[in-house]
C-alpha cells in the first residue's frame, strides 16, 4: 500500500500568510531559501509570540528536519500540535502521519485518525488518502472499505492531474471489493463532492449505525 508519511512546505509559507503577517513570512521564506535557518527563526519569533499557527507549523518543520536546530521529533510533534489545534491542515497532516507511522512518538492509530480527519475535511489530498488507508485496514476505526474507496476517490478528484498515492490505493482496493460495494463508494463520493458537503456529508455518514 502506497502512503505518503510526511510532507513539508518549507518555502511555501507565503501561500499561507495573512496580509498582517506577510512581511515576517516573506523574510522567513527568504532565509529558508538561503539556508539561513537562524534568521528564519528570528523572523518567526514575533509571530510565535502571537501564537500564529503558521509559525508554529514552521518550527515543527525545522525540528523535524534538523534545520538550524538539533533534530528533535518529539519537539516537532509538539509544535505541530500547537498549530493543528488552531486548524492548520499541514500540521494536522504531519501530526497524523507521525502518529500513524510512529515517527518520534508511539504509533497511535486513533490519534492519527483524529488529526487526519479535520485536514481531510478541508480537502487535503494526502490526509484523504491516508485516512482512507486507516479505514481500509480498520486501524483506529471500524473497517469500512466503502468509505476508504470514497476517500481515495476524493483525493484523486481534488488532485486534478497530479499523480497521488490514492490512485494506486484505490485500484488495489477495487480489486478486493464486490461490484456492489464499489457502486456504493461511487455514490458516497458523489455526495461528498457536492459543494460545501465534505465535512457535513462525512459527519452524516459516520453518524450512521455501525460507524
Distance between the termini: 24 Å
Coarse shape: elongated
How much helical structure, as a percent, in the residues? 55-70%
Low-confidence stretches: 1-6, 8-21
Estimate the strand proportion.
Answer: under 5%
Assembly classification? single chain
Count every beta strand, where a strand is a DSSP E run of 2 or more residues.
0
Could you say how many structural domains there are in total? Answer: 2
Nearest-angstrom radius of gyration?
A: 18 Å
Element-level helix/strand string: HHHHHHHHHHH
Structural class: mainly alpha
Sheet with most strands: none
Estimate the mean pLDDT confidence: 88
* H/I helix tally: 11
Could you outline the blueprint of secondary structure elements for this entry?
Blueprint: H1 22-33, H2 37-49, H3 53-65, H4 73-84, H5 89-101, H6 109-121, H7 125-137, H8 145-159, H9 165-174, H10 179-192, H11 198-206
Tags for this model:
mainly alpha, disordered N terminus, 0% strand, 2 domains, single chain, elongated, 211 residues
Please characterize this protein's 3D structure.
It is a single chain. The protein is an all-alpha fold and 211 residues long. Helix 4 packs across helix 5, helix 5 packs antiparallel against helix 6 and helix 6 crosses helix 7. Residues 1-6 and 8-21 have low confidence and may be disordered. The protein folds into 2 domains: 11-86, no CATH class; 109-211, no CATH class. 65% of the residues lie in helices and 0% in strands.
Short description:
By secondary structure, the protein is mainly alpha-helical.
